[in-house]
Amino acid sequence: MGLVKANSLLLNSSGNERSVAANHIFIKVENKLVKIDFDKLLYLESFGEYVKFHTTEKMLFY
User: Fold this and answer.
1) pLDDT one-digit tens code per residue, 23-47
2) Cα angle at 41 between 52 and 4, to 5 degrees?
């Protein structure tokens, strides 16, 4: 199973765009931002209006 890493665009000091690959995301869990590293993400699971993030360390609801 492979994961897709999101790319974002940033402007450098000369105004040119450059692509930056993100290696993590932040999700809000119980009014706190929690960092999830893509390297530790196992899979996502739909749970009604929520998403369960299963990682190598724990499971989080979003």
Assistant:
1) 888 888 888 898 889 889 999 998 7
2) 105
- What gap in Å lies between CA 38 and CA 23, rounded to an integer? 6
d(CA 5, CA 18): 16
pTM flag (> 0.85): no
Q: Is 23 exposed, middle or buried (0-12, 13-18, 19+ CB in 10 A)?
A: exposed
**Integer Cα distance of 52 and 21 in angstroms:** 23
Structure-token pair, residue 19:
């692509």
CA distance 49 to 41: 20
Strands annotated E in 1-62:
7-11, 17-21, 24-29, 32-37, 41-47, 50-55, 59-61
